Amino acid sequence: MNKEQFLKKLSTSLRRLSEDEREDILQDFQEHFDIGKEEGETEEEISKSLGSPTQIAKELLASYYLEKVEDTSTTGNVLRAVWAVIGLGFFNLVIVLGPFIAVVAVVLAGWVSGLAFIVSPLLVLVNLAIYPGTFELFDLFFSITLTGLGLIIAIGMLFVTRFITTGLVRYLNYNVRLVKGGLNHE
């Protein structure tokens, strides 16, 4: 593969990035080819030593999305980062997607139970409206207790969600470093 083919394939694979970022990356690889030519290598040798442009693009996209999620930790950014890391290889489909689904299920279950407890007094009022003769003070006080418990769960889930998001991003960064060629001992 010559320089033009390599850069074209890399550019196509990086189409999700902004034009400026894509141009910066392509300029870096252009310099790689220029330096290699000065050292007497052919374009084919240089492209072979760099590796697959598609794999390079996957690694760059994963790093880009992980940096983005570290800046602003929105649900969309986290999902894009997870998807980019999964795209690094089939192995990541199992190693990243499995834990991600489990974590999302646990967090979602915590939020749903907290919110369900919070709205429990509304269910008592609905029951009172439908069946007025079945009202008992125990139901009212029990639902108020559940509301307090739901508020505690919701506050706890705020901290748990932040902690898990931070841990997930650290895990994804670890995984990307591992896939890129091992871990550097710093």
Strand content: under 5%
* Residue runs with pLDDT of under 50 for 5 or more positions: none
The number of distinct helices, counting runs of at least 4 residues, comes to 9
Termini, distance in Å? 35 Å
List how many beta strands DSSP finds: 0
- Taking all Cα atoms into account, the compactness measure Rg is 26 Å
Question: Structural class of the helices, strands and pairings?
Answer: mainly alpha
Q: What value does the average pLDDT take?
A: 85
H/E element sequence: HHHHHHHHH
Share of helical residues: over 70%
Shape: rod-shaped
Please outline the major beta sheet: none
Protein name: HAAS domain-containing protein
Pfam families: HAAS
Organism: Halobacillus seohaensis
Keywords: Membrane, Transmembrane, Transmembrane helix
List key phrases describing it.
mainly alpha, 186 residues, rod-shaped
Q: How would you portray this structure in words?
A:
The chain crosses the membrane at residues 81-108, 115-134, 140-160. It comes from Halobacillus seohaensis. This protein is 83% helix and 0% strand. The protein has helices at 3-13, 19-38, 43-50, 53-71, 75-86, 90-95, 97-118, 120-130, 137-181. Helix 7 (97-118) packs antiparallel against helix 9 (137-181). The mean pLDDT is 85.
